[in-house]
Every structure is written in C-alpha cells, then in structure tokens.
UniProtKB/TrEMBL annotation:
Protein name, per record: Aspartate semialdehyde dehydrogenase
CDD domains for this protein: ASADH_C_arch_fung_like, ScASADH_like_N
Signal peptide stretch: none
Gene source species: Clostridium frigidicarnis
Classification via SUPFAM superfamilies: Glyceraldehyde-3-phosphate dehydrogenase-like, C-terminal domain, NAD(P)-binding Rossmann-fold domains
Length: 362
C-alpha cells in the first residue's frame, strides 16, 4: 500500500477549501494533516470556524470536524507537518503571491487555486490532460526560489476549462480566432443560491477580471518553454464575455472558432472522442475515463443534467455546426468547482505525485 502524503489546505473554510476536503477524504494518495485559515479562524475547531456555513450538499466528513484550524501565516509550523499544500485563500493578490512563495521557500510545494501566480513566467498553469510538458519548468523555478523541493503550480481559471479542452483537442488544425461567451454558476463566486438571492431570476453581464483571464490564460496553457519561462502562444486570438447566471454549479460556454486548416465535422468528432492525456495513461484516481463527451442531441449538454459527468471531472460538448462568420460553433460545459477548481487541483497533485515532483519529506 502506498504511503499517503500529508496535505495542508490553506483557505479550508472557503467554498473551494470545503470541496478539497470532500475530495481528499479517503483519498488513496493523500491524507489531510492541516486545515489552515485566517487568524480569525485559527485555534477553533473546523466546525466552530465554519459556524454553520458548510456550503456543500454532502455532509462534512467527521474526521475534520474537530481538527483545530491553524493560522496560514504560521508557514514554518505548517510546513513542518505536511508534504505539500493546496492554496485556496481569499486574500489580496499581492498577499497571495507572498504566502505562496513563502511556503515554496519553506520547501513545501504549493498547488494553487488562486490567480496570483498564473502569469508568473516560471509557474506552470496546468490542465493535466493538456500541458503536462510545462512541469519541466519547475526546475527553473526552484533555481529562482533557491529551493530543493519547494515550488508553485497553478490551476487555471474555472471559466476556461469548459472550452479550452475542446479546442486543445483540435490543435492539429491550428485554430486562429475564437469568440467565447461563458455562462457561469453562482458557486464560481464562492456563494450558494441561498446566500445570493439577488441572482434569483436574474443574469449579471459582468464578472470582474474573468474576461481578461479567459482571454489570456489559455495562451499560457498553449504556450511553450524557452529557457527559464513559459512563453505564451501568439494564437489563437480570443475574445471573451463572461456572464453570471442563476444556476448553482456548472459553467457553460458558447464557442465560435476559425482554423488555419479547416477540419471536417467528422475530423472534429473523432479528435474529441479520442483525446486523452497523462491522467488517463497513468489511471490517476480523479482522472475521467472519457475526458471529452459529445452529445448528438441538440438539447445537450444541459447544466443540471450533465455537469456531474465522470464525477464532475469530464467536459461535455454539443451542437457542433458550421458558422456563418467562423468555421464552426459549439457548446461546452464543465463543473466549475470540480473540474474547474478543487477537482482540477487534486488531479494536478495526483499528476505531480505520479511524476515524482511531490514526494514525502520523511
């Protein structure tokens, strides 16, 4: 039996932190050792710190109820107890940068759900099925940080993970232009429908910072390594609109795309069906068996019906057809707090473990 790695969760009281707890409970590779949060929560049991604000529709695991929450700023203490940490804190961007680098410099790898380091040149932004090769930059990052085992790996924004996998499967045809609109769930804000009654029967056409992330982060995912940094891709050009809609979970995207070499519809469907990456080859615990699933039914994918496909780790696609302006258009859907957030982070950690980047300190 594999010796489980000891894990810390920074930001354990938030929505993503809660998801991480449910995914790491009884995980075959990992064991929750530390729950970290702000100074306000430190010293309380986890249940006391939440004060009735457990947001998920599944029960809080009993094993974390009486764990005493630690102050995330106690970097050396937490680092002495864990092999690596997940970071899902709600803090100003500059403060997140500092604390993630502090943990890395304390020789504790960081798997980050935050945006703070996504555009740092030597920090890989990983979708495990797509750009595993970017993990090679970790050695350059460790040289910069002067560490032996500490580093930072970031997970990209949840809004891009509905459509970037579908486009990534078609890179052989050289996509040149993309227009995408994402229709994003309430949980992407860290809230539940009950906590945000203003969203009832409402659509909000603006989500701060999301459109910039949706236009920039895919280009880093599709970029390449030159010397000590990841150089972002020059194409395709992306124009994005990000809209908040009154659903609990699931980000849906409408996509129009043009290619340098226009494929046939049959070519596209074949590439989607056969697309897989290292998580599938390695049979990682949270890897979806079928990463991309296409529906022939024009009424699919639907958020409520399809967001949980492959335990929330798969991406669904539908309505592929030719476009009057672009070459093709289609619809995509992913679960934003599973594939897009906590689940994607756990799968990234599984990959880092399987590839030898994260190991036990003892």
């Amino acid at each position: 039996m594999i010796k489980k790695l000891k894990v810390g969760i920074l930001g354990a009281t938030g929505f993503v932190g809660q998801r991480l707890i449910t995914l790491l409970h009884n995980h075959p590779f990992f064991k929750i050792e530390v729950l970290g949060a702000s100074e306000r929560s430190a010293g309380k049991t986890y249940e006391e710190a939440l004060d009735g604000k457990w947001k998920l529709d599944i029960d809080m695991p009993d094993m974390v109820r009486n764990m005493v929450v630690k102050n995330i700023n106690e970097v050396e203490e937490i680092s002495s107890l864990v092999d690596f940490v997940f970071c899902a804190v709600n803090m100003p961007k500059d403060d997140i940068k500092k604390i993630e680098e502090a943990y890395a410099k304390a020789e504790t790898p960081v798997v980050s759900n935050n945006s703070a380091h996504r555009m740092t040149g030597d920090v890989p932004v990983i979708i495990p099925e797509i750009n595993t090769q970017h993990l090679e930059i970790i050695e350059k990052q460790k040289n910069r940080l002067n560490t032996k085992r500490g580093f930072i790996v970031a997970k990209p924004n949840c809004s891009i993970q509905s459509y970037v996998p579908a486009i990534s499967a078609l890179m052989d045809f050289k996509p040149t232009k993309i227009v995408v609109s994402t229709y994003q769930a309430i949980s992407g804000s860290g809230k539940t429908p009950k906590e945000w009654p203003e969203m009832n029967d409402n659509v909000i056409p603006y989500i701060g910072g999301e459109e910039e992330k949706s236009e920039q982060e895919p280009l880093k995912v599709w970029g390449h390594i030159e010397e000590d940094k990841i150089v972002i891709a020059e194409s395709p050009v992306i124009s994005a609109q990000c809209i908040r809609v009154p659903v609990s979970d699931g980000h849906l995207a409408t996509v129009s795309v043009s290619f340098d070499k226009k494929p046939s519809k049959e070519d596209i469907l074949e590439h989607w069906k056969n697309f897989k990456g290292r998580p599938q080859v390695l049979n990682l615990p949270n890897a979806p068996e079928q990463f991309l699933t296409y529906f022939e039914d024009d009424n699919r994918p639907q958020t409520r019906l399809d967001r949980d496909i492959e335990k929330g780790m798969g991406v669904t696609i539908g309505r592929l057809r030719e476009d009057n302006i672009f070459d093709y258009k289609f619809v995509c859907l992913s679960h934003n707090t599973l594939r897009g957030a906590a689940g994607g982070a756990v799968l990234t950690a599984e990959l880092l473990c399987a590839e030898g980047y994260i190991t036990s300190k003892n």
